[in-house]
Amino acid sequence: MSRILVFQHVAAEPLGTLDPLIRQRGHRIRFVNFERRPDARPSMDRYRGLIVLGGPMNVEEQARRPHLRTELAVIEQALGQGKPVLGICLGAQLLAHALGAPISRCEQAEIGWYDLETHAEGAADPVMASFGARLPVFQWHSRTFAIPRGAVHLARTSSCAH
């Protein structure tokens, strides 16, 4: 049974519908909640993949929130080991930043329910394929990023490409 490491930033923001999908495929999940344990020092050594969830902070807040530097180091470790990394919201910002892509403000903040539209690559992805072509997802963010070189763009909303 493989293990997946999940970085959580707010206790009220869990994996949601991903949790049962991951467990049904025989994976065990270990959460590191940086809201509760900002000094945690996780490592990818015992894990097959990494999921980094969302949170109210942004990647440029590393001086105020040192755990973001820890997370970036673990993301880089996972990438260096060839392990899959899924970033959602803040997690996508951190992943893009770790891969050298610039982070910027969205033209329009997304707050509320938006349809997440899966690209062809997302439809072929083992995680995203489970959700179908459109999935209503609650959004609350004002940042976006360029797609890093070599990254796979899985989905978008009508007002935010990344």
Distance linking N and C termini: 32 Å
Number of strands: 7
> Biggest sheet, in brief?
4 strands, parallel
- Helix residue percentage: 10-25%
What spatial order of strands do you see in the largest sheet? 2-1-3-4
**Order of helix and strand elements from N to C terminus:** EHEEHEHEHEE
- CATH homologous superfamily identity: Class I glutamine amidotransferase (GATase) domain
- Proportion in β-strands: 25-35%
Based on the coordinates given, report the CATH architecture: 3-Layer(aba) Sandwich
Structural class label? alpha/beta
The poorly predicted ranges are none
Mean pLDDT: 92
Instruction: Briefly note the CATH topology name.
Output: Rossmann fold
Number of discrete helical segments = 4
Number of domains: 1
Overall radius of gyration: 15 Å
Overall 3D form: globular
The CATH class is identified as Alpha Beta
Explained architecture:
With 162 residues, this protein is an alpha/beta fold. The chain has one domain (3-156): Class I glutamine amidotransferase (GATase) domain (Rossmann fold). Helix content is 22%, strand content 30%. The protein has four helices and seven strands. It has helices at residues 18-24, 67-80, 90-98, 120-124, and strands spanning 3-8, 28-33, 49-52, 85-87, 103-118, 134-145, 155-156. A four-stranded parallel beta sheet has the order 2-1-3-4, with helices on both faces. It has a three-stranded antiparallel beta sheet with strand order 6-5-7. Helix 2 links the parallel strand 3 and strand 4 (85-87).
